[in-house]
Amino acid sequence: MARTTADRRPIIALTRLGMGARPDDLARVSDAGGWLRGQIRLGGAANPQVALPPTDDQIARLYAYRDQVAQARRADADSGRDPVREARRILIDATAAAFLARMRLACLTEAGFAERWALFWTNWFSVSATKFQAALVIPQYEAEAIRPRVFGRFSDLLVAAEAHPAMLLYLDQAQSVGPNSSVGQRREAGLNENLAREILELHTVGADAGYTQADVTEFARALTGWSISAPPDAPPALRRQAQAGSNGFVFRALVHEPGSRTVMGHSYRQDGHDQALAILNDLAAHPATARRAAHRIAAHFIADEPPTTAVAALEAAWIDSGGDLAVVATTLIGLPEVWTAPQAKLKSPYELIVSGYRAIGLAPTRIEHVQPILRQLGQPPYSPASPEGWPDEAAAWGSPDAVVTRMGWAQAFAEAVPVPLAPTDLAEAVLGGLLSERTRATVSRAESRSEAVALLLMSPEFQRR
Question: H or E stretch including 323?
């Protein structure tokens, strides 16, 4: 018997807009729209339950680690141990614990839409643990800059993300010096354009917005001085001239390039820190930013090639509200296309593993339960390969080798975890109105309970959202 759209709304809310259904979720989520709208809160998305050292403390640990590297290698060259590797491991283990806490939150939360929305913006403003110094503060970055602002103004989220030490370290902004600044005139020091380029190309207007290389360079000059806390042995003058911000950010007037700047046809005469801030606010309000964000939101939540009507509605909501992300999220929930589009999005490895745990009502208890399979599937923790973040298209995750690896995970997972219901009942509970008669029959004919669960996890309805 065919299911109506109304019959499928709760499970679509849980899977397409959330992180996947748990065995009792369909009984709890009767009003899909109300459940989703109730998660849109000015306080943002929940933070994982893990104790994080302050960002300033992590930066101090980074400086201490750098200082001990050379002397430790010399002192212990003949001892048979590598103290540098041991120190590095301690720092990496703390980041791994934070990732596990984040994944546990995704597996157990009742606010699956808020979590998916937060992860979308984390990926938009992507930083990566492939750069060690950034890895140390990625959990703090998400907790301090991203999650509290995902239902606020995009301009506030933009500024918080770009000013956080994780972004400044990842894109080498902390070492950028204006050639005509006080410091730049006294010693050889270069202008670094990485942050300016990625803000324009990835975080705001996009590569097709008409900006030029000259705009990138001018913006990079405006950003000089945006940096992180100084090391303990820094010259007193440098430490005095650093205007403290928050969460490890400082503005260093001594390295800021003097003068006015022109970016994308607008002139900025502000002094110091306020110059880059003014540019960021204008980029946040640019129509090209609204258009690009609307397309990416629709592509993430609906289909790789999203309906133009959905993109237009999101773009209008963005512009009319001045980039109010709560309004944009509410508009997304109300789009007819969200509820009627076929399951076209292939779950990323992270989404797949999370939805597998949610299907049995559990969460991983050790990083070893998830890190190896995420690496095998091409999505290692906190480690996108570039500032573009994780890909969002089915083709990126659906190669023949990836499908085989997914199948191996499904079999191993089904054999290792307790299943709370009979497999056919579990299929009904976590797929609801999306469950096809073919999948139901396949699960019911399995020769063992674990085989039935593995088949459920590999079904098209479960692999897609």
Answer: none
